[in-house]
Amino acid sequence: MPRAVAPRVRRVPPAAPARPAPPARPRRRLAPRLFRWSVALAVWGMLAGFVALFWFAWDLPRPEEALGATRRPSVTLVAADGALLATSGDLYGETVRLSDLPAHVPAAFIAIEDRRFREHHGLDLLGVARALVANVTAGRIVQGGSTLTQQLAKNLFLTPERNLRRKVQEALLALWLEHRFTKNELLTIYLNRVYLGAGTFGVDAAARLYFGVPARRLTVGQAAVLAGLPKAPSRFNPRVNPSAAVHRAVEVLEAMAETGAIPAAAAMQEAERLRFPPAPSRDAGWFADWVRDGLGDRAPPTADLLLRTTLDTRLQAAAEARLDALLAGPGRAAGVAQGAVVAIEAASGAVLAMVGGRDYRTSPFNRATQARRQPGSAFKPFVYLAALEAGARPEDGVSDAPISLGGWSPGNGNWRTRGEITLEDALAHSVNTAAVRVLQRAGGPRQVAAVAQRLGLPGPFPRDASIALGTAEVTLLDLVVAYAPFANGGQRVAPSGVAEARAEGRPIAWLPPARAPVIARETAEAMRRMMVATVARGTGRAAAMPGLAVAGKTGTTQDNRDAWFIGMAGGTVMGVWLGNDDATPMEGVAGGGLPARLFREILETARGRQG
């Protein structure tokens, strides 16, 4: 048998001993690293913020200084009824306190501009969010996110540029304002400084311009119109676009109803009641210039001056309208290019109306106060006054026969010689030969000149008999003022245009011109009666008005170069002059024609408006 072969056993070497595993590295914690990075970022962020803040703020104005410097001194003139007439510089009305205003005035601005004004601290993030939603919903900008305080900061301190830097500066200043002032103080400053179009700053100036009333008399609807202006002062200007102004006012009224400032039912009622008065006198510029020229050193150099003048807007508007109509109609046909009107209160000399020409914008030269022209027979009352003071009486007789003095022979026009007439008739019919004889009876040219000067005419006067026919040059204003003693019982007055003056809202002394007796009362009354006869049956018949005692005197110069009528009625003395700047003769225009007619038409128009 074969031998069994044992299997070969393969020796496997023993395994090498295993090396020990290296120790595991400890894991770094993430939180401390994040913390350190966060601190670093915060520090750098703060530094960057401070740098940015410094960059935004380095050229900010000093608010305390800016508050006192943002208003330039100005002179604002308003009419006797408060209607705005003119201003030098920006239009600022009277400074108003919150307590002076009806509650609906500030409520209107808060409702439409900043409903959360009483709650925020200068910036209103909720307001910004609300405006964003409203604008996205409407697809256009219908609301702004600026608070009243931000608007105030922008208006007071910043230039009108619109960029990121200005917005940040606006926010910084708003925060400062909120820290510096109470809410009521901020609202008061805002209402006195907000720009409301047409050059007006503050609610009082705008109220006077657009509605002819001070801010304290604004109705709810009027307040809504003003509150709608800051958004777009030009577009919503009630004079330029009244329909847009009303539409915007309705939005304000609805906002007022939503905030509870007015009942909801009142919103539409107020909108329906809105009325915009006509613009103030378009040609009161002559009067405004005359008042400003007379201020002298009485105007405070560093304070806004508000002057309530004596101007009667009804009479002024009537004078402008009737003169314009006359020059465009019958005056044009007769070769009359210019005219002037002045009316004063006989008792005080207060100027009630002044028109210095056809159009102030075309020619600001004031023909009522600057043009010296011969008055013709409108000077004769001073001749007859001198005669009465010398002992003559209105019923005394005087010859109307031709007269010659040193080769000079005055004519009587269409007057037919009667031989002898009364002094009253001689004045009423403006008989020249009789006037020369009355001059002689009165004491001659020197005595008549002294009487005229006593009543306010400055001269110089001719030293011959021609003075009786009005050859001395005068201004219309001087002549009207010189007639005042005939209407007020013999008191000389000085013309004045200012009734009250205020500087920064405080009254300042403004003494009215003093009156002085210059004619005995009975003599003044006799002269007035003689001039009543002139209108009743003499050359001034065109000025007569039913139910009103009108006294006056006509005047016409050689070749119809000047035509005058000076009249007195109802406590008013008013003078009219018609002519041409180059003294070109007019065609048949005499004082008893167009000037007397214009006097009557102005008074009728003014009295009709008052009625």
TrEMBL record:
Transmembrane is among the record's keywords: yes
Spans annotated as Disordered: 1-25
Segments forming domain Glycosyl transferase family: 90-256
Pathway: Cell wall biogenesis; peptidoglycan biosynthesis
InterPro entries, per the entry: Beta-lactam/transpept-like, Glyco_trans_51, Glycosyltr_51/Transpeptidase, Lysozyme-like_dom_sf, PBP_transglycosylase, PCN-bd_Tpept
Pfam families: Transgly (PF00912), Transpeptidase (PF00905)
Protein name in UniProt: PBP1A family penicillin-binding protein
Family membership: In the N-terminal section; belongs to the glycosyltransferase 51 family.
